[in-house]
């Protein structure tokens, strides 16, 4: 069951990457910092509302389920060019 979840999360991350790399806003290297408006090193669900796609996939990217997207979780989406 855990293996299926890992495969699913990998597929979601890949789809997320494809969707976002075609969006000019996501070509910015400082995107994480831009979305992290309180500068605590994490993107909350409220902060993620600033971008529809990120907000829609928030739960899938929040791999540890703590309610935040860390820089490591954000990097999984491979948004930096």
UniProtKB/TrEMBL annotation:
Name of the featured protein: EF-hand domain-containing protein
Leader sequence residues: 1-27
UniProt entry keywords in alphabetical sequence: Signal
Molecular function GO labels: calcium ion binding
Domain of life assignment: Bacteria
Pfam families: EF-hand_5 (PF13202)
Annotated ranges, domain EF-hand: 49-81
The species this protein was found in: Glaciecola nitratireducens (strain JCM 12485 / KCTC 12276 / FR1064)
């Amino acid at each position: 069951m855990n293996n299926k979840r890992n495969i699913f999360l990998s597929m979601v991350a890949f789809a997320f990457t494809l969707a976002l790399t075609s969006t000019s806003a996501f070509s910015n290297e400082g995107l994480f910092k831009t979305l992290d408006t309180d500068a605590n090193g994490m993107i909350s669900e409220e902060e993620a509302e600033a971008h529809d796609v990120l907000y829609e996939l928030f739960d899938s990217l929040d791999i540890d389920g703590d309610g935040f997207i860390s820089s490591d979780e954000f990097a999984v989406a491979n948004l930096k060019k």
